[in-house]
Design brief:
The chain is α/β, with parallel strands linked by helices. It has one domain: NAD(P)-binding Rossmann-like Domain (Rossmann fold). It is built from 9 helices and 8 strands. The longest helix has 23 residues. Bound molecules: 1,4-dihydronicotinamide adenine dinucleotide (NAI) and the ligand CC/C=C\C[C@H](O)[C@H](O)/C=C/C=C/C=C\C=C\C(=O)C/C=C\CCC(=O)O. GO terms for molecular function: 15-hydroxyicosatetraenoate dehydrogenase activity; 15-hydroxyprostaglandin dehydrogenase (NAD+) activity. One of its GO terms (cellular component) is cytoplasm. Pfam families: adh_short (PF00106).
Length: 255
């Protein structure tokens, strides 16, 4: 069953190159049947400790994991084909990997934008009816930096603007409608995670960023995962781009 057509309690299997967003599985009371998930990250330590925790809570068989660098086509392909063969179908893909790095801006674009494109193309491939899929949902995690300029982090902002445009463009493609594939985009402002602990050179002005963050405030991860859940549980909303700030969530675009 697809989350889109059936509303609540319909998540069964996820293929998730992500870090924090998996926490939705703890937080959302309506997801009371634990889906089978495949978690992925380039960092094996983060991945293993997360999976151990989730397996203890939900059962060994529910949680799969595989190390994957989203910059590597072959690794991304392998991740998706293994997830598809373990689960027989994919219902939800979350493209969440991201970094801030203005010094190595090529890396920043390759992870944040190209990584989302790689994951989305694999998601489409495995969800397409002609390949034995039956539709599904692809959530791309952008940022508020994907809709507003961010002077201390232009490459990051460009990568996230790209994610918003890419997601909205696929959402309007007629093949996605025919195949019941839904594209969504989440644009959080600052949330308390590791990405905020930037080192020298990663930003074009650490002070500027800190002052800005003081003004906007920093959200809890729970607030972001709640918005994520609301986004995926809203039926027939392909093309939705949702912002999340301390002030609340807003629908910025509907295709
Ligand atoms: N925390 C924040 O303030 C905000 C974060 N975001 C976005 O949310 C997403 C998740 O980030 P957070 O959980 O906040 O930060 P995080 O730093 O905790 O998580 C990012 C994860 O991406 C992984 N990663 C990095 N390079 C990778 C690669 N090449 N292949 C696979 N995985 C890779 C990291 O190992 C890490 O676990 C990112 O896309 C980020 O840009 C968006 C808006 C605000
Ligand atoms: C140190 C920076 C490191 C990482 C960047 C983050 O990962 C993140 O992706 C960047 C976020 C950028 C946010 C930019 C603007 C934020 C604005 C607000 O929070 C505005 C507040 C209120 C708007 C009210 C509303 O319309 O809802």
């Amino acid at each position: 069953m697809k989350p889109r057509s059936t509303g609540r309690n319909t998540l069964r299997r996820l293929a998730v190159p992500l870090s924090e967003v998996f926490k939705v599985l703890h937080l959302k009371p309506s997801v009371d049947i634990m889906p089978q998930v495949c978690l992925s990250d380039v960092n094996p330590h983060i991945l293993e400790s997360t999976c151990t925790e989730l397996r203890e809570k939900y059962g060994q068989d529910k949680v799969h994991y595989q190390v994957c660098d989203v910059r590597d086509d072959a690794q991304v392909e392998d991740l998706f084909s293994k997830a598809k063969s373990s689960f027989s179908k994919l219902d939800l893909v979350v493209n969440n990997a991201g970094v801030v790095d203005e010094q190595d801006w090529l890396k920043c674009i390759d992870i944040n934008l190209n990584g989302v494109i790689r994951g989305s193309l694999q998601g489409i491939k495995h969800m397409k009816k002609e390949n034995g899929g039956s539709g599904g949902t692809i959530v791309n995690v952008a940022s508020l930096a994907g809709v507003v300029p961010v002077s201390y982090s232009p490459a990051y902002a460009a990568s996230k603007h790209g994610v918003v445009g890419y997601t909205r463009s696929w959402a309007g493609h007629p093949d996605m409608k025919t195949n019941d594939i839904r594209f969504l985009c989440l644009c959080p402002a600052f949330a308390k995670t590791e990405i905020l602990k930037t080192k020298e050179g990663q930003l074009l002005g650490q002070k500027m960023a800190e002052e800005f963050m003081k003004k906007t405030g920093v959200m809890s991860v729970d607030q972001v995962t709640q918005a994520f859940t609301d986004l995926i549980e809203t039926p027939d909303n392909s093309g939705s781009v949702m912002s999340v700030t301390l002030q609340g969530s807003k629908l910025l675009f509907q295709v």
